[in-house]
Design a protein that fits this description.
The complex is a heterodimer of chains A (159) and B (139). Chain A has 159 residues and is an alpha+beta fold. Chain A has a single domain (6-158), classed as Alpha-D-Glucose-1,6-Bisphosphate, Chain A, domain 4. Helix content of chain A is 24%, strand content 42%. Chain A has helices at 25-33, 35-41, 128-137, 147-158; strands at residues 6-8, 14-21, 48-56, 62-69, 75-86, 90-97, 104-113, 116-124. In chain A, helix 1 (25-33) packs across helix 2. Chain B has 139 residues and is mainly α. Chain B has helices spanning 2-12, 15-25, 31-35, 42-54, 73-111, and strands at 58-60, 69-71, 133-137. Chain B has a two-stranded antiparallel ribbon with strand order 1-2. Chain B is elongated, with a radius of gyration of 25 Å. Classes of the chains: A alpha+beta (159), B mainly alpha (139). The interface between A and B is large, with 64 and 43 residues.
């Protein structure tokens, strides 16, 4: 059975993302917390790179991610702070997007069984409106510009 | 319309309402029929139906005695489209992560052939709370 991402809305202010990986939790955790790894996959739609990826992995430590659209030159970033860290199974962080109001509380949990890891990310927004805006625009507001291109590509593939 | 989407997501956030929609997907039903599977009073179910109706997810016939409820597929499809686009973005990111994890595991197996990496505790050697700062920059 193919692996696929499950997205649900457990409440009017939350988004929950779940996915399984054929890898131990310690590796999935590493790939979420080492900048040289994160930079290679947390990229959003095609056409975006991640020129800045800084992580200070400790309670109270901060992180900074900046994405760059290679075609338009648009840059967009998020800044966050870690509240809880339990290697290799749990991270709680608070994040703000550049130029946007509100904070998002993100809870990542990794649960391993038989060498496979179930990942669960729970995003809690300050209001339903902010949650819906995030759902509408994709992972971050700044990536909305690439949406039309992505849709075009998806349409071309479906044809 | 964003406002319509708000009402739809609010309606879908409740598991009882999702179960009601699942039931209506296979055909219309009266309030009494919809109440049956739940440990809940009919007025409580009626409140849920009102939320679903307000979101445009169901339609209720007003004239008949039974007042059957019927699902409105178009509103549900619209909410699903938003969630689907969002899901697809995460899917492509996680597929990249899949490839990176596979490459890393192949590297570990090549470095220590015959040893299983499963079940081995993390050996970072550092106590919890130790400061780890790293940066990666692309020029």
């Amino acid at each position: 059975m193919p692996k696929s991402v499950e997205v649900t809305t457990p409440s009017e202010r939350e988004i929950k993302v779940m996915r399984r990986f054929d890898a131990p939790a310690r590796l999935v955790f590493d790939f979420h917390t080492k900048p040289e790894h994160v930079q290679k996959w947390l990229l959003g739609p095609p056409g975006w790179s991640m020129p800045i990826c800084e992580i200070d992995l400790r309670v109270g430590g901060r992180y900074r991610f900046v994405w760059h659209n290679d075609q338009s030159g648009v840059e967009f970033g998020v800044s966050g702070e870690y509240r809880e860290i339990a290697v290799p199974s749990r991270i709680v962080q608070i994040e703000r997007m550049d130029g946007c109001e509100g904070e998002v509380k993100g809870t990542l949990t990794l649960s391993e069984s038989g060498g496979r890891t179930t990942l669960s990310v729970n995003l809690e927004f300050e209001s339903q409106e902010l949650r819906d805006r995030a759902l509408e625009s994709g992972m971050t507001n700044g990536m909305a510009a690439s949406y039309d291109r992505l849709e075009g590509q998806m349409g071309a593939k479906a044809a | 319309m964003m406002r319509g989407l708000d009402a739809t997501f609010f309606a879908l956030a409740d598991p009882t309402r999702r179960a009601i929609l699942a039931r209506l997907a296979s055909g219309e039903a009266s309030v009494a029929e919809l109440t049956q599977p739940f440990a809940m009073s009919q007025p409580a179910i009626s409140r849920h139906l009102k939320v679903l109706e307000n979101a445009g997810l169901i339609r209720r016939s007003r004239d008949a005695q039974r007042r059957p409820c019927r699902i409105e597929p178009k509103a549900l499809m619209e909410a699903n489209a938003w969630i689907e686009r969002y899901r697809v973005l995460w899917e492509s990111a996680y597929q990249r992560l899949d490839a990176l994890l596979a490459a890393e595991m192949a590297k570990e197996r090549a470095a220590a052939p015959g040893k299983s990496s499963y079940g081995r505790p993390a050996k970072s050697g550092k106590p919890p709370g130790t400061r780890r700062t790293s940066k990666a920059r692309n020029p």
